[in-house]
Amino acid sequence: MAHSVVIIGSGFGGIGMAIRLREAGVHDVVVLEKAGGLGGTWRDNTYPGAACDVPSHLYSFSFERKTDWTRRFPPQPEILDYLWHCARKYGVLDKIRFGTEVTEARFDEDAALWRVSTTTGELDARVLVSACGQLNRPALPPIEGRESFAGTSFHSSRWDHGTDLRGKRVALVGTGASAIQIVPEIAKEAAELRLFQRSAPYVIDKPDRPYRAWEKAVLRTVPGAYALSRARIYAMFESRALGFVKYPKLMGLMEKGFRKHLEEQVADPALRGQLVPGYRMGCKRILLSDTYYPALGRPNVDLITDPIERVTPSGIATAREHYDVDVIVYATGFQSTDFLSPMKIVGRDGRELNEAWRDGAQAHLGITVSGFPNLFLLYGPYTNLGHNSIIYMLESQFRYVLGCVEALRRHGLDWIDVKPDVQDAFTREMRERMRATVWEAGCQSWYMTEDGKVVNNWPGFTFAYRNATRRPDPRHFTVRRATAR
């Protein structure tokens, strides 16, 4: 017996999609999760200082408001607790099969089913939803000798909590979003911290603080207070899209704020000079922190800007010096443009998704892929953001997928498949619009494929995406009715 919907992944996308399907009356849903617990990136990233850079009230589902967040920017444990709460409250926890990794999904056109192979067995689905996210597979740098290191080494998203860093000589490779949260924490206990920087990030003020008891009381008891807070934050963040996607020159205003922040927090002119990026603000992810720059000024912290040449059994070598260390932490990001890897996805006529995406990932509205009927992606290509909450984008996608699932049921369809010309037109539009954005201002970022295509980000306002995904357009799809078998 085939399941109505099988969802891969139990992060915000998978849990939210399962909840929305249940509320729509679709109860035969299975969520496949390779790990032993739900949460996606918020389960995996347990490094010291892990937190979100989107305010709490916006980094949560609109249908499940939480008025007792402890801080304006939520810490990792609290976000993970929130996801567990949502899964329990809305009755989807028992839909999750933990410890079940998908290895292959193959579309059986005759039966109009997805045949899904996992590490624990086989199952069939009428509809397959990928909620794997973009930031789930760690990227380790191809540095010579990396495997030769005799000490402890690990990626930031696979933090080794059994390693005590107190009094240790620690090397941290990378200065991205994870690193700026890690540095202030481990600088407090490590004897020496060597931070290896390839390119300086833009780091701006993070107005974080605990919520006061009276603020929580107002949010809990005053009608409209929470909605107003959420709307205010949304409008403030959404306005930044003008600089990212419409008028990149406006980023100059934010850059002035960055320079002011840097000057206030870093007194040493030489160190300050090393922390000024050599690319336009916004081209790479803008980071938020009030503790990163002060941590770099500590006497036990050393910022190293010379390129790493190799890793040795005892440490890290640049062209000019060798640094003996006890622990190496790689805060080097994720394989963000390989959306469904390492799964093998096979659609109509035996076509593999990796082959279909050899020139870069493509999906109409970031959700449907031509030649792969009844397959829907959450947080797929062209749906990441540089300025607002991805939860807002996910909720737009939930509604679109629900519309497709309802169309299958209402019209007695075996499958729907987005037309190739529709997908091609969307991809051309995205690539054309992307040229005007700050993300194509000349830097290399995790938004890009190896050949320089930005395939992760949405080049527009989030409300425009919500409007575009309000309902599926029947003219965009080819269909097969159940009577055709």
Brief summary:
By secondary structure, the chain is an alpha/beta fold. It contains 14 helices and 20 strands. Helix 1 runs parallel beside helix 12 and helix 12 packs parallel to helix 14.
Mean pLDDT comes to 93
Beta-sheet strand percentage?
A: 15-25%
The main sheet comes to: 8 strands, mixed
Helicity level, as a percent range?
25-40%
Overall domain count:
2
Number of helices: 14
Shape: globular
Structural class: alpha/beta
Top CATH class of the largest domain? Alpha Beta
Quick one: CATH superfamily of the largest domain?
FAD/NAD(P)-binding domain
Low-confidence stretches: none
What is the fold named in CATH at topology level of the largest domain? FAD/NAD(P)-binding domain
Protein name: NAD(P)/FAD-dependent oxidoreductase
Pfam families: Pyr_redox_3
InterPro entries: FAD-bind_Monooxygenase_sf, FAD/NAD-bd_sf
Organism: Actinomadura montaniterrae
How would you describe this structure to a colleague?
By secondary structure, the protein is α/β, with parallel strands linked by helices. It has two domains: 3-137 and 335-484, FAD/NAD(P)-binding domain (3-Layer(bba) Sandwich); 146-213 and 248-330, FAD/NAD(P)-binding domain (3-Layer(bba) Sandwich). The chain has 14 helices and 20 strands. It has helices at 12-23, 41-44, 76-89, 179-186, 213-221, 225-238, 241-246, 251-265, 269-274, 292-296, 353-356, 390-410, 420-434, 462-468, and strands at 3-8, 29-32, 96-97, 102-108, 113-118, 121-130, 152-155, 169-173, 192-196, 203-204, 287-288, 301-304, 308-312, 315-318, 322-324, 327-330, 344-346, 375-377, 413-418, 477-481. The strands form five sheets. Strands 1, 2, 3, 4, 5, 6, 17 and 18 form an eight-stranded mixed β-sheet that branches. A hairpin with a 4-residue loop joins strand 4 (102-108) and strand 5. Helix 1 (12-23) packs parallel to helix 12 and helix 12 (390-410) packs parallel to helix 14 (462-468). The two termini are 18 Å apart. The mean pLDDT is 93.
